[in-house]
Design goal:
The chain has about 425 residues and is α+β, with helices and mostly antiparallel strands. Among the domains are: about 130 residues, no CATH class; about 50 residues, no CATH class. It is built from 17 helices and twelve strands. The strands form five sheets. A four-stranded mixed beta sheet has the order 7-6-5-8, with helices on both faces. InterPro entries: DUF222 (IPR003870), HNH (IPR002711), HNH_nuc (IPR003615).
Length: about 425
């Protein structure tokens, strides 16, 4: 929505802000003294930090209305990511900060103070950065659940005060020392804290490698230590030589062995309608030439050689498509998609086909574009993959699907786009 569609007072302020920025960008700097350059730098930085806090008002507006539901998006973070082209991680971070540092509303609509008032005050005044706030919130989330409310509030004020004096990297060190002081021997941490803090994150590094990080609760830690410790013991070579792998490399290989064993066991739950499988797609030319890059269902690139090696070691499903990215249609007689049809849909759609949705194939179900009861065929050209959320809501919100050359296009209702221009998920690259 443009500025013209906003409330008049908000629109006027945004217009004035835009004009002020335009004027500032045209301002010459060569006439300023050294002191004036530094003063300008400080003033602009404070204004930048304060403007970032407007996210609090945006998220509050999204939360208080049905905007995500009307846009067929999961939540406020999905709206920010989709409308502003933010990464899911950045959108989620903005929403979390807004909800913890912004003014809250009671069920009756009464304004309540932010959860962390000292941090919110410094952030709104432009005295600390978003990076400072991230360090403070992460630290507060690690406080023992049994810590008295007054002590938690005092810890927050302590960190917020330090944040106005040092950078975020230095604040991280202060935060670590604070946690050590509050719970030096870990005696205050109990299973409730472990349950709240448990997490594992897998982050793509851009070159095919991924970084795993997280915090394991006591039970998971005990299991991981026993299994990885056993599988990562040094192994002599066939000739009796020493194991040249580092301890970290041995643990990596042990973790890979655990994953392969899990896939081969046949006991993993189905996901996306098929047994848990490594799904790899490539073109017929790539398979024939043994060159190029294949892709998993999660978008991870694999060299053709690596993919072929995997085929001999784990549960692999191959989908070979033509140069246009379209697999062959399979079957037209069954109400439920066959496993081969499911794999063909995964090869084509790559996950939920709804525009902007990043749900992988494992979180989707097969959707008949024309309902089965109305004569829709159980055929790759008559189905698409949709996650539970979009499967349940796209028709309710008056979106329609148009299959063009075997590819699903989504047509929005008039209230979203009067011209009803067809849209497709950005994973696709073929023009309409």
């Amino acid at each position: 929505m443009g500025v013209s569609g906003m409330d008049g007072s908000v629109a006027a302020r945004v217009t004035a802000l835009t004009a002020a920025v335009d004027d500032l960008l045209r301002s010459p700097m060569d006439s300023l003294t050294d002191a004036e350059v530094l003063d300008t730098m400080r003033a602009v930085e404070t204004a930048r930090r304060r403007l970032e806090c407007f996210d609090q008002h945006v998220v509050a507006a999204l939360d208080s209305r049905a905007i995500p539901e009307r846009l067929v998006m999961r939540n406020a973070a999905a709206v920010l990511a989709g409308v502003l082209n933010l990464s899911p991680a950045e959108a989620g971070r903005r929403v979390r900060h807004a909800r913890e540092l912004g003014v809250r509303l009671s069920p009756s609509g009464q304004a309540l103070a932010p959860l962390w008032e000292a941090t919110a005050e410094h952030r709104t005044a432009g005295r600390i950065t978003d990076e400072h706030a991230s360090v403070i919130l992460r630290t507060l989330h690690k406080l023992p659940a049994c810590l008295p409310v007054e002590e938690a509030a005092e810890a927050e004020r302590f960190l917020a005060d330090w944040a106005t004096k040092i950078d975020a990297r230095q604040l991280t060190g202060v935060a670590h020392r604070l946690l050590d002081t509050l719970d030096p021997d870990g005696s205050l941490t109990d299973e409730r804290d472990q349950a709240r803090r448990r997490n594992v994150t897998v982050t793509a590094l851009g070159d095919g490698m991924h970084r795993i990080s997280g915090e394991l609760d006591a039970e998971c830690s005990a299991l991981a230590s026993a299994v990885l410790g056993s599988l990562s013991a040094p192994q002599p070579t066939d000739a009796g030589g020493r194991d040249e792998r580092t301890p970290g490399q041995r643990r990596h290989d042990a973790f890979r062995s655990v994953l392969k064993l899990a896939l081969r066991s046949g006991e993993l739950p189905k996901s996306g309608g098929t047994p848990a499988t490594v799904l790899i797609t490539m073109t017929a030319d790539q398979l024939e030439s043994r060159t190029g890059v294949a892709s998993t269902s999660f978008g991870q690139p694999l060299s053709i050689d690596c993919a072929l090696r995997l085929a001999d070691q784990a549960a692999i499903a191959w989908i070979v498509h033509n140069s246009n990215g379209k697999p062959l249609a399979l079957g037209r007689t069954r109400r439920l998609a066959t496993e081969h049809q499911t794999l063909a849909l995964i090869a084509r759609d790559g996950g939920c086909a709804f525009p902007g949705c990043q749900a992988p194939p494992e979180w989707t179900e097969k959707h008949h574009v024309i309902p089965w009861a109305d004569g829709g065929q159980t055929d790759v050209d008559g189905m698409c993959l949709l996650c539970d959320y979009h499967h349940d809501r796209h028709e309710r919100q008056q979106w329609t699907i148009d299959m063009r050359a075997g590819i699903p296009w989504f047509i929005p209702p008039e209230w979203i786009d009067p011209e009803r221009k067809p849209l497709r998920n950005s994973r696709f690259s073929v023009a309409p």
